[in-house]
Specification:
mainly alpha; two-stranded antiparallel sheet
């Protein structure tokens, strides 16, 4: 799903690839600009960006599709020094976490609907985890059960791994 002017629209495989290509081109242009600033400037103000699950969403949504295009995109991301951050949660906290996002939406849900949502989140998380393992872009998986957001930022900035 892609948020377009506040409305969620489903993208085709081709539409999603085009969106990824556009974003990678923007990153390449920003990187070129950072390089033009010179080594001293690049070191202090270098290119830093966070794109949540960026290419992994495509891999997970189109698991059985041809990987040539996504491999090319990952190659470009790799050349830009990209790293993927995959935020995960343990099965024991999934229900509490999804209910905490928008509590008013969960008040009238049945146990079956809640179980179904929990199962779907865990299924997608496992697909994303698997896709991260086969992606060319290095991935840091961070378990966010403790909600220690300052620590997660530190880990991301330092490029360390905690799971």
């Amino acid at each position: 799903m892609n948020n377009k002017h506040g409305e969620y629209v489903s993208l085709t495989r081709e539409g999603h690839i085009e969106l990824l290509k556009e974003r990678v081109e923007m990153l390449k242009k920003l990187n070129e600009w950072a390089i033009q600033l010179g080594p001293a400037s690049r070191g202090s103000r270098g290119l830093f960006y966070v794109l949540e699950r960026f290419h992994l969403n495509h891999r997970a949504a189109f698991v059985d599709s041809d990987l040539d295009e996504i491999n090319k995109i990952e190659e470009q991301l790799e050349s830009l020094g990209a790293r993927c951050i995959l935020l995960t949660i343990s099965p024991e906290v999934v229900e509490e976490r999804i209910k905490s996002r928008q509590p008013e939406e969960w008040i009238y849900k049945t146990e079956e609907e809640v179980r179904s949502s929990v199962s779907e989140l865990l299924r997608i998380q496992n697909v994303l985890r698997h896709q991260a393992q086969i992606s060319r872009v290095p991935t840091i998986e961070i378990n966010t059960d403790d909600k220690n957001w300052d620590e997660y930022v530190r880990v991301i900035m330092e490029g360390n791994h905690i799971a």
